[in-house]
Amino acid sequence: MPFALTKTFKIDIGHRIWNEDMRSGRGSELYQPESNLPVNKCAALHGHSLGVTFKFQSKKLDEHGFVLDSNLLKAPLSQLIAKLDHAMVIDRNDPLFGPITQLCDQFALKYYPVNFCPSFEALAKFFFDECQKIIDQCRHGEEFSLLGVTIRGAKMSVEATYERP
After folding, report:
1. Distant-in-sequence, close-in-space partners of 136: CB < 8 Å, separation ≥ 6
2. What percent of the chain is modeled with pLDDT above 90?
3. CA 73, 79, 81, 86: dihedral to nearest 10 degrees?
4. Cα 120 versus chain centre, distance
5. Where is pLDDT greater, at 112 or 72?
6. pLDDT of residue 163
7. So what's the pLDDT on residue 31?
8. In which band, very low, low, confident or very high, does the pLDDT at 141 lie, cut at 50, 70 and 90?
9. Which of 82, 91, 130, 163 is the most buried (most CB within 10 A)?
10. How far is Cα 165 from Cα 161, in angstroms, rounded to an integer?
11. How are strands ordered across the β-sheet holding 159-163?
12. Are 5 and 64 in contact (CB under 8 A)?
């Protein structure tokens, strides 16, 4: 596709990666016990400032010279971002889901339950799927498409992207 448009939102979230064990799975042969790396430092509750970038594409520009006027996406995507901003994103399958959500309820802390372990990669797919639902409601949704979503950690050298299969 010759034309592309990106729109980035800033968001702050909390999460924990409860199911990681660097001693097993993909890349486990690279784990070196003598490095003093914890087996799963991301199991602790922690947070990130993130950039969530949506990338759209189109074969041709519309009558106004746009892939899509990004202001049209601002409201629905901002509503989506607001649901997770400054929330603890917690996997319903996490063994600590009950205790964490009880504490959140007890102290009026915001949380957002999901059905996946909220790694950057999984969050990119989540935002992709949710944005696609918004596009599917557009009258001209077939004239442009969502190419991918990238999650970037602020002040981190890591980013994760989910692209249209």
Report:
1. none
2. 66
3. 160
4. 6
5. 112
6. 97
7. 81
8. low
9. 91
10. 12
11. 111-114, 87-91, 3-15, 46-58, 145-153, 159-163
12. no
| Angstrom distance (rounded) from CA 75 to CA 77 | 6
Of the candidates 141, 108, 128, 3, the residue with the CA atom closest to the CA atom of residue 53: 128
What confidence tens digit (pLDDT) does each residue in 24-52 have? 878 888 888 777 777 788 899 999 999 99
Instruction: Name the residue type at position 158.
Output: V
pTM for the predicted model, two decimal places: 0.91
Assign 154 to helix, strand or coil: coil
Size (the chain), residues = 165
- Return the structure tokens found at 54: 């949506």
* Helices 70-84/120-136 angle, 10° precision: 130
- Domain-wise residue ranges, the chain: 3-13+47-163
Q: What is the dihedral of CA 110, 76, 58, 136, to 10 degrees?
A: 100
Per CATH, the homologous superfamily of domain 3-13+47-163 is: 6-pyruvoyl tetrahydropterin synthase/QueD (3.30.479.10)
